[in-house]
Specification:
Elements (H helix, E strand, L loop, with lengths): L1 E7 L8 E7 L4 E6 L6 E6 L3 E6 L2 H7 L5 E4 L5 E6 L6 E6 L3 E6 L4 E7 L5 E6 L6 E6 L3 E6 H4 L9 E2 L5 E4 L5 E6 L7 E5 L4 E4 L1
Parallel strand pairs: 10-14
Antiparallel strand pairs: 1-2, 3-4, 4-5, 5-6, 7-8, 8-9, 9-10, 11-12, 12-13, 13-15, 16-17, 17-18
């Protein structure tokens, strides 16, 4: 299966030009660019892993379509990934195992692991204003807020887990919540979207 094509939209005539393409054996649920390297992106894949890809011509030639690195993130499908805009070595992932995890990409280590949702965790996004805050939503209709400063950082290689670990839990919909996003202009506001046909904003 095709992971993703990287498109250049600056081509003459406004026609999108594919500049990179990667294939994998599993479906791709999400992908995002690195906040530290313009040529690096990461994908959430159906085998539960998080894969990092080098889109530079040199990297593509050297790796021949293989990922730069792979994190064995989740026991079921990995459904979402997000790069921290401020702590640029930090990456979040979430999965069908209900877990939300925080990774140090430079050290390729799991720093924190939360049993976030009773069911699938569909999305986990960092706050664009407060770098320690992470919001997740899932099939249980809940939105969970995590503060990495509140639980502390694990020592190298040790990881850290909690039965829950959230600093706030909100029943935001009566059915599955598929998406969450922070307001980039107001650090206290979020929006959620659900299969109940509703979009809700929160403060």
């Amino acid at each position: 299966r095709r992971v993703h094509g990287v498109l250049d939209l600056s081509a003459p005539g406004g026609v999108a030009r594919e500049v990179a393409c990667f294939d994998t054996q599993d479906g791709i649920f999400d992908c995002t660019w690195s906040e530290a390297n313009e040529k690096l992106l990461v994908s959430a894949t159906g085998d539960g892993s998080v894969k990092l890809w080098d889109t530079s011509p040199e990297g593509m030639q050297r790796l021949q379509g293989r990922p730069v690195a792979m994190l064995h993130a989740h026991s079921k499908e990995c459904s979402g990934v997000d790069w921290n805009m401020h702590s640029r070595e930090m990456l979040s992932s979430c999965g069908w195992d209900g877990c939300v995890k925080v990774w140090d990409v430079q050290r390729m280590q799991n720093l924190l692991s939360f049993s976030a949702h009773n069911g699938v965790a569909y999305s986990a996004l960092w706050s664009p204003i407060r770098p320690s805050l992470l919001a997740s939503v899932g099939s249980d209709g809940m939105m969970q807020l995590f503060d990495t400063n509140a639980v502390g950082k694990a020592p190298p290689g040790a990881g850290m887990s909690g039965a829950h670990g959230a600093v706030a839990s909100i029943k935001c919909h009566d059915t599955e919540v598929l998406s969450v996003d922070w307001n980039k202009y107001n650090e206290h506001q979020l929006v959620t979207a659900s299969i109940d046909h509703r979009i809700r904003t929160w403060d």
